[in-house]
Amino acid sequence: MKPDATQTVFDKLLPDVLQAPVSATAFAPSNIALSKYWGKRDKPLNLPLNSSLSVSLGNWGTTTTLSPADQDTLVFNGKTVSGTDPFAIRLFAFVNHFRRRQSLPLSIESRNTIPTAAGLASSASGFAALTLALNKAFQAQLTDTELSIIARVGSGSASRSLWHGFVRWDRGESGDGMDSFARPLAINWPSFRIAIVTVDSSQKSHSSRDGMNHTVATSPLFSAWPAQAEKDCDSIERALIEQDFATVGHTAESNALGMHATMQAARPALSYLKPESWAVLETLWQARRNGLLAFATMDAGANVKLIYLEKDETSVKALFPTATCIAPFSVERAIERAAD
Ligand code: DP6
Q1: Which atom of ligand 1 is nearest to 35's Cα?
Q2: Each residue of 180-191: pLDDT tens digit?
Q3: pLDDT digits over 152-168, tens only?
């Protein structure tokens, strides 16, 4: 039988026999990509076709507590989730890769600190928090790189959710994915801001996973994406180092619109953006023509995220009074890795 490539990743990184778990809690922030991950070169391992770069959302994320139990249970945002729910199945499949047939039942209690209305609840912070909590509960003492590889197998964007601030995920080249992990960028930009303009808080109709696979498989425009996305990632990193906000913003906005263009050309077409999303963009572009330096990025959903600098917060709020503003660099503590 062909060895399962996903299991091989866990086998390589984890001790053969896990210690009995202790209770452990971990937090991981959500993140917004300024240069997007869209398209995989390997689906089971979530290996991307291009590098990506994100900014984490400070205290907005997921807190997960693991405790030894008589049987596996999952409570999400205060509600018990049935073991047959696809969400529970995906989570425990990941945990099983970690436990590898060892009888170590766990209760998972996970809570998103992201307001549900923001429509942002993402697998990124969820799988990152779960990875950190597993590492603590089993005292596996994984390095940051190993944690990022394991989180990536849960969900690609989770590889970037292990740090605050700007984070880059390098695509890597190898078939086993051991060189495809994220790392924090040593760039501090306290006046950098994100605003979430919510136009739709309902559950999205297609997951980002299904959306990207459908786009890669059917969109004739997709072939142009990986090379451009790689360039955008490099340009944004350079502009962040130089604190050149206009270049960061223009490149991030073009990157997001390019990603959405690949989906519109998919067959059948895929569109996460709603008329209200386009209305936000029109308002933003008009304001930019009048001198406001603010930019937009959109993911696999209808909401629009704005990036701007602190000095323009009043103008951004005047344009979008319901927007939620986030200061990504205002967090005081680093993300905890191991049990004390
Ligand atoms: C549009 O990380 O959710 O948000 O690896 O299949 O779990 P899987 O996909 P996921 O995709 C995120 C796509 C995106 C862009 C990004 O965050 O880079």
Answers
A1: 18
A2: 999 999 999 999
A3: 999 999 999 999 999 99
Q: How far, in Å, is the centroid of ligand 1 from the Cα of 324?
A: 22
Q: Which fold has domain 192-330?
A: Alpha-Beta Plaits (3.30.70)
Alpha-carbon distance values, 272 to 46, 278, 286 (Å): 21, 11, 23
Please check whether residue 91 is in contact with residue 130, taking contact to mean a CB–CB distance below 8 angstroms: yes
Please state which CATH class domain 5-184 belongs to: alpha beta
* CA nearest ligand 1 atom 11, residue: 208
Q: What is the pTM of this model?
A: 0.96
b/e burial code for range 56-85 (CB count within 10 A of at least 16 → b): bbbbbbbbbbbbeeeebbbebeeeebeeee
- The encoded tokens of residue 81 equal 């989730």
Pocket of ligand 1 (CB under 6 A): 33, 36-38, 46, 52, 123-124, 155-157, 208-209, 299-300
Cis peptide before 15, with omega less than 30 degrees from 0? Answer: no
Q: Distance from the CA of 205 to the center of ligand 1, in angstroms?
A: 15
